[in-house]
Amino acid sequence: xxxxxxxxxxxxxxxxxxxxxxxxxxxxxxxxxxxxxxxxxxxxxxxxxxxxxxxxxxxxxxxxxxxxxxxxxxxxxxxxxxxxxxxxxxxxxxxxxxxxxxxxxxxxxxxxxxxxxxxxxxxxxxxxxxxxxxxxxxxxxxxxxxxxxxxxxxxxxxxxxxxxxxxxxxxxxxxxxxxxxxxxxxxxxxxxxxxxxxxxxxxxxxxxxxxxxxxxxxxxxxxxxxxxxxxxxxxxxxxxxxxxxxxxxxxxxxxxxxxxxxxxxxxxxxxxxxxxxxxxxxxxxxxxxxxxxx
Length: 294
Hints:
- Helix content is 36%, strand content 17%.
- The chain is built from nine helices and eleven strands.
- Helix 1 links the parallel strand 1 and strand 2 (26-30).
- Helix 3 (75-89) packs parallel to helix 4 (120-135).
């Protein structure tokens, strides 16, 4: 399959591109950033030309979904640049969003429920969804992703602020992990491979409401994630970080089973992959840390 991925230089775009390439698909990166940056990528106008010429089977937009790294062209602008070609050709196209757009719901809800964001990050994604659904036409769909697990590209990666990486970096820097919630507070995670498989289904099937989610993901509570970090430390011979938890367990908003699952999609992420990823990150980016408390 011939796949364009806009936002291919970001953490999500790069890792999903690698997962799809490993499955044998021809993935072409698209970026709004300067063309001299590496790896080479098509511009938005070049991507539009390819779509109009019928040389693409699937378009994925993974561009600037609410991050704050100072990128001049936002994900919304990327949507606006590519939606004319999508709506004109009917190309199967997917905007990657996040389940965090549902964070304001206090009762059980559906995967395609109206966005109700409370954080700035979720609000940015909700705006992207609104533009995309309005302008892309019936062939454009939205994939709301559960917590995304991929190994950060470096110590300055925004991914390091997310779970489980935030626990790892805290342990490296201080020798301990402090969790504000209780140990049974849980999250659902998916991998790049999981998202890639969902995108392949969306290349041929459009969800009834044009919105679907990667559910159910791999469920891990905070106690599990702390244990994963501890195991990774042990595997490379680092002292076991101390850990403390809050008293209250936070119960996340329940989102019903997904349309993708009804088609046979399933998350393959497991604890072994998470521990392996944390271990790899420690070895590649923190092996030179010599603080006495770590």
